[in-house]
Amino acid sequence: MNPLTSEEERIGKIIVNSAFKVHKELEPGLLEKIYEIALAHEIQKAELKVKRQVDIPIIYDGIKFDEGLRMDLLVEDLVIIEVKAIEQVNAVWTAQVLSHLKLTQKRLGYLINFDVPIIKEGIKRIIL
Prior knowledge:
Layout lengths: L5 H21 L5 H14 L4 E6 L2 E3 L2 E3 L4 E6 L3 E6 L6 H14 L3 E6 L9 E5 L1
Parallel strand pairs: 5-6
Antiparallel strand pairs: 1-4, 2-3, 4-5, 6-7
Helix pairs in contact: 1-2
């Protein structure tokens, strides 16, 4: 596996720092969408481009369709973030981030669960 680029690493650090800020300010217990909006805002304050609720096209047997898959956040068209606010993270969410990385041909993704007492325990970095 090739190492991540310095740009991917830089973006990753900003994402993690932004997640810490959002968690410290809002704390656990809110809706997922609130954390998504706040996290996007923090990342944008660091002067990175963020897209929310991005459709992921699927190509199957020569046909392309956009229905079905959507990532929460895409940062600088390089890094995918899936935001959760749930008591227990299921392995299916990690698999979802991996699928998103494969389908978009990106290498770095984060699964961030804000419903934890310590945000460090809620951040999972996924590299393809």
